[in-house]
Amino acid sequence: xxxxxxxxxxxxxxxxxxxxxxxxxxxxxxxxxxxxxxxxxxxxxxxxxxxxxxxxxxxxxxxxxxxxxxxxxxxxxxxxxxxxxxxxxxxxxxxxxxxxxxxxxxxxxxxxxxxxxxxxxxxxxxxxxxxxxxxxxxxxxxxxxxxxxxxxxxxxxxxxxxxxxxxxxxxxxxxxxxxxxxxxxxxxxxxxxxxxxxxxxxxxxxxxxxxxxxxxxxxxxxxxxxxxxxxxxxxxxxxxxxxxxxxxxxxxx
Length: 253
Known about the structure:
This protein is an alpha/beta fold. About 20% of the residues lie in helices and about 20% in strands. The chain contains 6 helices and 12 strands. Helix 2 packs across helix 4 (about 165-175) and helix 4 (about 165-175) crosses helix 6. Residues about 250-253 have low confidence and may be disordered.
């Protein structure tokens, strides 16, 4: 039985038991397994990995392990340009669009509230979710580690927190999205982009008590939902401020 030594860095340690974090972990194996097998055997989904060094050399997931090899595994570096080092995938994903599994509906709503592109796969089978993510180039957000080990997935993130506000804050920080936040620009129901619509075009849909004092309206061009700044707006704005607290943006403007 051969043995390699695997060390993971940064937030990838979240996937390890406390006693194994920040250590070189012995990985015994027969034959010549791929480094992807070793990484995921430790519980680290491949989609959270950006850089792999095998004995100091950058390799992809298909590289083979030998006895005594030393494997260093690094998480995604959103703020660094690693194109000269990357061997894990051809190009980093630069279009930031998310696909959330069925258990993260509240997080999807909060991301849409921030103006981020967040589709929600409610009631979707895992294989269909993966196919949708691959087809549209979306980053899968989930609390299911096993889902992120699906071979077809190239981009995904295991959401650490269980609190929806903290989850949204976590995603903004993890993907460095503070400068891309545009609150109240997406439909909370479907995630479509909102655009101004003339009051005259939608007058029959506006409650009389609202029409008497409100002249500005937004329409979702995807599902047709109509929005206006009502009495609930201060509560939503407070939610946005809570999410952005501690990020590069501290207010909604």
